[in-house]
Amino acid sequence: MTPPTADRVALLLRQRIKAVFRRLPKALAGGEEDLRQMRVAGRRLRVALPLLGRKPAGKRVRRSRRLLRGLTRTGGISRDLDVSVALLEEELARSGITAERRVVQGRLKAARARGRSRMAEALLDLEIARLRRDLRVLARHGDGFFAVLRRFRETRDRAGAETLALLSALGDRFDPALLHRLRRRVRRLRYAAELSGALKGQIPAGAEFRALQNELGALHDTHVLAGWLEGQARACAARGETAVSRAAAALQAIFLAASHAHHRAFLAASPEELIARALADMGQSTVGVGRRAAAGSREYSKEGRPCVY
What we know:
The protein is mainly α. 77% of the residues lie in helices and 2% in strands.
């Protein structure tokens, strides 16, 4: 049974808060899936707090979002290496393993182990107790239903305009840094769309955003691994490990090509049309906002810097 609108906001807020702390103990212990789910829950809650909270600009919301950012970023210390290890293992299973490739694989796994150790120490340094206290207070009351709907509209229009402007500035360039920034924006829109649908009691929303986010995520993951392999090739060459250096360089070329392939797939999906359609599904009245939004919105230069009008 769908709760009345007066209760739905608070219920959604409590659900988002519980999702973070349900995964936190095992994430702190190094559980890979729990860490991933905790980071997802943390990012969802960062989106939800200023939309659902009674005082979205208040001290507790601002502090909680800052601590959640620290939680998700710290949890990401080993995340890229976890994914890189899995991607490399898949490639070695597909194309075969040599003694030199095994050395590269072992060094990547050692880097992951060091990353997990640093992550565990960094997580313990975060103000988890402060975060729990603030969220416990925020969970007591959500804001009014119609005030929250207004915030959704404002967020959709502003964030949608900025996302389309960044996409327009990128064009068809392969710029991993800006594409990763675009991915983060698409992800936030997806979480807002899902939250809006849940608030209104509608079917799950955000499928278009999720499809683009996944393609951009695969692009990022393969590019990160290619970068690590490039560094490994240089380090091995400097130490005189010529055969291992060649193996790392060959693998680097494979994953760089994979990253470019994901970029082509992203472009082929007509991302501007997908985003515009997803914004329309969220209730946006003006779809063509990619080049300039209302007063105070931002566009991006070719270098990706925001331009204020």
